[in-house]
Structure prediction request, 374 residues.
Amino acid sequence: MTRTPTRDLILAAAVRTAAEKGITGASMDEIADRAGVAKGSLYYNFPSKDAIFGQVVRDGFDRLDIALRQARGEAKGLSAMRAVTVATLEVLSDSPDRAKIVAAEIFRTDRPWADVVAPVRAGVVVHYREVLQEYAAARGESTDAITDIAGAAFLGAIAGAGLEWLLFHKERPLPEVAEQVLALMPR
Amino acid sequence: MTRTPTRDLILAAAVRTAAEKGITGASMDEIADRAGVAKGSLYYNFPSKDAIFGQVVRDGFDRLDIALRQARGEAKGLSAMRAVTVATLEVLSDSPDRAKIVAAEIFRTDRPWADVVAPVRAGVVVHYREVLQEYAAARGESTDAITDIAGAAFLGAIAGAGLEWLLFHKERPLPEVAEQVLALMPR
DNA sequence: GTCTATACAGTGATAGAC
DNA sequence: GTCTATCACTGTATAGAC
Prediction:
């Protein structure tokens, strides 16, 4: 029987609530209720609502970044494309609620935490771009034409497939979803 | 000098405001201000805030659906893949604000208008899936393996690239962005 | 058809007891 | 460290004058 720190209870409740109602729609009252603590405890553990969700979004990108680094370290070429796709889908399915929040927030530029999140987001896109470039190079093709936009397209393809999977076709196994994404890729 | 109906002024102001602050963050006060009308006029033209944004989101999918039907009518095979990609990017760049709203709302299942939007969303995904299937068939490959998840991946790829483009690399021409997406596709 | 004024519920945040 | 009680404020929506 491990005791979960209040801070983590709050973050988990915030994720669950915002997945349903969006960040602005998630009230501190409801987060406190779901966490099983009083609202005052929210403000003891975090300075503000923005601080809570800044942490949630940053955690999401951090988890993805760590998973991508590990996947890229273990494979190259086409295997790296597959490894990166699988790793991303695993992060999504580990926490679909968090994924929904990040997906909804990723293109908002006016958030208090936007300045902190933007570089992390850009760093994640670079992983996908570099994997695409390495694969193109391995096939003897030019890498010049592959920009961050292609990286964002790769990430978008995985996210689109992953969320469609988790929300509407949850019975499918993960490898099958990965194949649907990779079927789009050049070979 | 054409007179814009108040209803359209309100919808346009709602789109602009929600693109910055999200739907929940867009207040009726600010929408009225930006539309240049009184708050009471909002409630004369629409029964509620939800009704306004239900209309905004539905309009977004309708525009995309119309553009996709036209694009598919004019081209087949690889040309259809390109036509659909370009058409989607055109819809995005015609109204990036609306695109940001729809992108943020597309995976929310608790909205008042979710029941209306879900089938429209699914209908749009079918277009992408069918184009992928037709292209596979034209190359003599099996279409059985291509499901809605692949369709969602295609849409996700275009949306990811398109939003990266419009938000961070707006100087690039549209055809170049389309090529970045199509470079991911089998050939 | 659009305005002003207002009702009233819900919001993020704070203070102080335990 | 967590609680209860309460604050000032903003939100959606309504009523009625023009």
Remarks:
- Chain B touches chain A through 50 residues (CB under 8 Å).
- Residues 6, 37-41, 44-45 of chain B lie near DNA strand C (CB under 10 Å from a C1').
